[in-house]
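ARCHIVE CARD
SHELF: 3
SLOT: left
DATA:
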Amino acid sequence: MARANRNKATTDRGTAGQIVSGAIGAAEALTVGVVQMTGRTLVETLHAVEEIGSELGSAVVRAARGSIKAAEDIGSDLVTVGKDVSRGVALPMRQVGTGITRLTWGRRDGKGEDGMRKMPAKAAGRRRRRPAA
């Protein structure tokens, strides 16, 4: 009977060892699976971030190019408006300037002297002469 108890204890130890060994193996397999899944998730996340970054970069480049194009269009419109305004101001100024030039040159002779007769500084007195008696 002692022998039967010893065999049973040995068998129990073997069975317990197998259970522990199986549990450790399962935990190890689970750990390896979790690590592999985490690694794959991390790699996929990095690929997604890379794609998102690429798309954001492309969007930023397109936005910058669009802004530059809009600034060019606005600038050319402003140049056109500026030219029109300057022409609109310059023509009347030329006309006024021509009129002023005519007025000033019309009063001068070719030498730059006044062509008009100067008025005396003081008007001469107009006295009536009496006839001699």
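SLOT: right
DATA:
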Amino acid sequence: MACKMLLFCTIPLVPIGESVLKNMLRETKTLVASPTNRRCPRIQLQIPVFVRGTDAAGSVFIELTKTINISAIGACIACQHPLRTNEIVQLTIPAPSPVAPSLVPSGTPPIIAKVLRKDMVGDTSLFGLEFIHPLE
């Protein structure tokens, strides 16, 4: 399968600290695998996303978080809510108001993803997600 990367937009993010991110990535080898055993390469890119789903306790939630890495077919996100394996979640990328609203579509449809796995790094829960429909 050929993979296409989609760059959503560049939004200034509040850094969590480069050393913190490097430690998180180093400690999560199960979620950040080498490119040789992936269907599509992932890039380390922090994108703010709203995650909407139902947590392990059955409560519906919306959380603003960010990706740790992303590819055309999935992403790794940090999330405070306890998600279950095989749970379906929706990701929505917040975007600033465009300068020329007529040039940008009025709404961005959510990205539907399935939770594949969970890993803990300290107090942070990281979730490996697979997109139901690859990004094009």
